[in-house]
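FAQ: What does the model actually see?

It sees only this:
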Amino acid sequence: MSLLRARTLDLKEITPLTQERKANSKLNEQEALAGKTMLESYPRRLVLEMTNACNIQCKMCGRNASDFTPTVFHPEWLEIFEPVTDKIEEVTLLGWGEPTLHPNFKEFLKWGKEKGLRIFFCTNGTRLGELKEDIFRNKVDLLTVSLDGAIAQTNNRIRAGADFDKITANIKEITAQKAQLQVEYPYLSIVMTLMQSNFHEFPEYVKLAHKLGLQEAKGVYLTVFEERLMDECMYDMRKEIEAVFEEALSIGEELGVNVKLPYLQGEDIAAEKAHKDCYVGWRDFFLGSDGYVRSCMSTSKKLFHVEQYQTFDEMWNSKEYQEFRSKVNNSGMELPCRNCYQASFANWNKKSAFIQVGNEFAPTWDKE
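And it is asked to produce this:
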């Protein structure tokens, strides 16, 4: 198996695309690389935040630093995408909260299947037991479960309210059913937020992925949002991290597990730039559970409310989107993009990618 990096321009293909989707994706990639602001292509992926609420309390989550009223994605917003779903590749159900808490979550999976979209969601795993049949019924293509330790003690300390043993048991049931049905989907992975109190477990985490029958183990650096978490920060720990990464990669190679890792500090391909070349404004369309369109999950800047425009075409080439595309990769870039911490695009040579204390890192949600 090989070392994987987070994707910045392309997406992971599981099954062949239709000719219409393939043509749109090719044009979209060309327009992104050319930096066009008015696009003929449509996004390759819809990223829909099901909710900003969660049912567990992770010690490092940025939600802890925000005071807000939970919101849920309105199912009727899906109608906006009806004219363009035959061109889009993927729907990703992901955001600031736990997506499976949405009361209509299973219906979103069904919608994705009916539209022929690649389906991906990331979950804390607490509801996997209830969703197993729907995962296979709706042919979910990609499924990632967040676990922040290779053992129950570590994970349950960091992710208060999560039950490591129950979650891993449910993952085993999914991999067993996948084998029984003799299907390739879903591509299964686990992801760990790497911090000082758990990063040393990552080699064992790769072994856990193999034990559970998964294809991939992923590590992402902790971004610190609150002063109280500075003792967990991984900034200026390259030597220690490198040794752990090398061991994990060796184990992955031996066991046949893909290992996805961020760049080591000082080696990020972004070099001295604010962030890696960012293509979210071309490739993705992100709609928050509060109804606001943002360029990505990890920005506090709202572009517009989904009800501001009548059609998807008007939104996709709106003045707000065009302005974002014109600035995001050049000297006119504004905050918060200059302090990017988005896992795929952040420059891990920079301190601000690791530490967001004092920055506007999340949108301003309505309060009660």
